[in-house]
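Regression test attached.
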Amino acid sequence: MSMKLNVSIGHIQFQNPVTIASGTFGYISKYAKSADIQKLGAFIPKTITLAAREGNPSPRIVETASGMINAIGIENDGLDHFLAHKLPDLAKLKIPLIVSVSAYQHNDFETLVTRLSQEESVSLIELNLSCPNLKHARLIAQDPAATQEVVAALKKISAKPLIAKLSPNVTDIAAVAFAAQEAGADAVSLVNTFSAMAVDVHRRRPVLGNVTGGLSGPAIKPIALKMVYDVKKRVTIPIIAMGGIMTAEDALEFLIVGATMVAVGTANFVDPQTPLRVLQGIKAYMKQHRVSDIHDIIGSLRTS
Amino acid sequence: MIKCQYTCSIVKNQKMTSRLFCLSLKAPGFVQRVLPGQFVHVRVANGLKPFFRRPFSIFRAQKTVDILYDVVGLGTRILSEKKKGESIDCLGPLGISFRLPPPGTKQVVMIAGGVGVAPFLALTDVLKKEKYQLVLLYGARDKDHVFSLKEFRKNGCQVHIATDDGSHGVKGRVSALFSKINLKMPTYIYTCGPKPMIKCVQDLTRTQHLSGQASLEEVMACGVGVCLGCSIKTTKGFRTVCHDGPVFDLQEIIL
């Protein structure tokens, strides 16, 4: 039985729906096996900003029940360094490259999108509208109107399909997703981490240097799944789903509720083989259930 | 999806004292790649508890990759219950190794606190081939944390021990031992242990104009330099302990 796993966003085709979440595989570490990474649908390097960012004070991570809280603070060397030193290696990958960007100054998004639009090796751009670790009173992704405004402005100048990455720290994530779609986003990705904290009771101090951070890992999966389910009811553009995926079954849950692609994030820290195991497991499931096309799984939830 | 992931079989999980254990791991091609100062990132349980891997300095790299650990929490307790023949998922060897002392060095002083002594056995395996005077200053909480240091002595190391409660060796901190030894300049320092001890060593060596290297420990997620979770402040900005370290120039760490 031949199996069709390929999916698409805009005009970009992916050989299968499995990718990784930004920030969980760096820019391809020196330890990465490119041959394995090329078996995935796409690669997403760590979020970049226009100027370099130092990141948050340590400790930056803490282990929690079935997950972790991080407050890295989008540490990165900035766009110029990315283009000169990271992109050449990433460009060698034979799978689509989705570059994740975020902005902390007015017009940074415009500059990032304009310059990445000129790079042939960049297939899509993900707008990280939802990083909860920075001391902004309100994030773009927490406001449907701001989301719509930013995405619409960037859509006008982008030569690449745009993905809006959404924050789960909202009352109605579907409303934000709908705003992104109305503004012309080619896809939405969700969820980013949930605002969280941990306290060292002996010292009565926050564990994290930044006081608060974002929770990820299997602890958030059922909540993330419900959010993807809600978003699917409101939008027609593809959804890239993430939130605690550790196994193929987790990934299948997201696909069944309507995700077109699934991203493995925190699980990469526990076992870097997870994305490949998830892909193998999806294939095994398709074989077992005699499904020949992944599209027969996507959004196939039966509720009656 | 990464090059350094091994399914190791446990050759031995030896109780060294009432608190300390030595776990010997084997996988084809694993031990040959180890340099002194590197570490392994061990998945102690296959489930979700504990969630993170645990990083351990490599203690010995002869026929097997050996780690020395103190049973301090859930991860190390699970590890202490592992039996010979079980398999365990390891990433490694990771991080950069110790660099050799600068030319002209006469004496090497290793200052270790608790299981921070671990990376120094593999280091002395290399240093014994040169003509340095080797000194190990080992500070531990009590006698339950002091194991046989005969392999260090066999490598030509002078060993001085201090315990916090005086139950073995001199009573006091390892830093107190430092003022008691005869320095044979030029002296070079290696240190590994709790942060307050490293800070103390940094201050002592700074006043004596000595240079050296420190091996650090941090909570880690990925272990391979991608998550940036274990970053520490250095004079060159944030650096990851897992990938830019765990070995750093002693004076470049900001504690």
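Expected vs. actual: identical. Confidence is low (pLDDT under 50) at residues 131-135 of chain A.
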